[in-house]
Amino acid sequence: MTKDKSQYTKLPVHVAIIMDGNGRWAERRGLPRTEGHRKGANRLKEIVNTCLDIGIKYLTVYAFSKENWKRPITEVSTIMKLAEYFFKREFDKFKKKGVFFRHLGDLEGLPPSIRRIIVDMKSNDTPDRNYEDKRLVMNIAFNYSGRSEIIEAVKKISGKVLNGDVKPEEINEELISESMYTAGIPDPDLLIRTGGELRISNFLLWQSAYTEIWVTRTLWPDFTSKLFKKALEDYSKRDRRFGGLNIYHS
Ligand code: IPE
Ligand code: IPE
Ligand code: MG
C-alpha cells in the first residue's frame, strides 16, 4: 500500500539527494559506467513521481558536480547527452503534473544546448518565488559546487556593499541565504545519499547546516520508491534539536 502525506507523522518539506553509485552499479555487471548513468536517469523519474504521490514540496538532486569534469571525456559527454535528453523529454511531462524546475549551479562550461534549456528554465521563474501553485519544486544541481555557490554569494553581497545598498553590519544569515542559488527555498530537512559514502562531496554546504543525513549502501540505479519511503519513515523518527533541548528535558 502506498502511504499518502497524511500517513507520515512528520514529512520533510525539502528532500535533497546525492544520487551516487551509477558507475559501480555498471562495473559490477561488467557494463560500461555510462550504462549506470542511463539506469540512474530512469530511477530519477520514478523518485520524482513518488515525491508527487507523497506530497514532497521541494526536491533537490545532485546530478553533476563541478568536480565531475575530472572524469574521462566519454563518461562526461554521455552524462551531458543524458541530461539533455532528460531535460527535453521529461520536463514537459513533469511540468504538466505540476513540477517546477530550477537549476542550481554554474552555466559556464556547459554545452550550449544544455545552457539554452537552463536559460529558458530560469526565464519562467516566478519573481515572488512562493511556488504556491506548484505541486513540487525540483532543483537540479548540475555543474554545481557548494563552495562556488558561496563564492558567488560573497561576490553578490560585496557588490551591494560597494554600491552602498548594504552595510557590512547588515550582512546576516537571511541575506546570505537569499544570495544562494536556492534563494526562496527552505533548507533541506533530509539529505539522502546512495552508494554508501559518508561525505557531503561539496553539496549544499551552507543549506545543510541542520539537515538530517540518511545514507544507504544501495547504489542509485537500485534505489527504489520503497527505500525512499523507508528514508522518510526514518526521518519521521529523528529528533531534531537544532542545538536546543527537547521539552521533556526542561
Ligand atoms: C553518481 O554516480 C553520478 C555522478 C557523479 C554523475 P557515480 O558515477 O559517481 O558512481 P560511482 O560512485 O562511481 O559508483
Ligand atoms: C557526488 O558524487 C556528485 C553527484 C552525485 C553528482 P561523486 O561520486 O562525485 O562524489 P565523490 O567523488 O565520491 O565524493
Ligand atoms: Mg560517485
Provide key terms for this protein.
250 residues, alpha/beta, Undecaprenyl pyrophosphate synthetase, 7 helices, 6 strands, globular, binds 3-methylbut-3-enyl trihydrogen diphosphate, binds magnesium ion
Give the secondary structure arrangement, pairings included.
Blueprint: E1 14-18, H1 22-27, H2 33-54, E2 58-65, H3 73-96, E3 99-104, H4 112-123, E4 136-144, H5 146-163, H6 173-178, E5 190-193, E6 212-215, H7 225-236
Parallel strand pairs: 1-2, 1-5, 2-4, 3-4, 5-6
Helix pairs in contact: 2-3
This protein binds 3-methylbut-3-enyl trihydrogen diphosphate (2 copies) and magnesium ion.
Descriptive report:
By secondary structure, the chain is α/β, with parallel strands linked by helices. The chain has one domain (about 10-145, about 185-235): Decaprenyl diphosphate synthase-like (Undecaprenyl pyrophosphate synthetase, 3-Layer(aba) Sandwich), CATH 3.40.1180.10. The chain has 7 helices and 6 strands; from the N terminus they run βααβαβαβααββα. Strands 3-4-2-1-5-6 form a 6-stranded parallel β-sheet, with helices on both faces. Helix 4 links the parallel strand 3 and strand 4. Helix 2 packs parallel to helix 3 (about 75-95). The mean pLDDT is about 95. The structure holds 3-methylbut-3-enyl trihydrogen diphosphate (2 copies) and magnesium ion (MG). The site of one 3-methylbut-3-enyl trihydrogen diphosphate (IPE) has 10 residues, from helix 1.
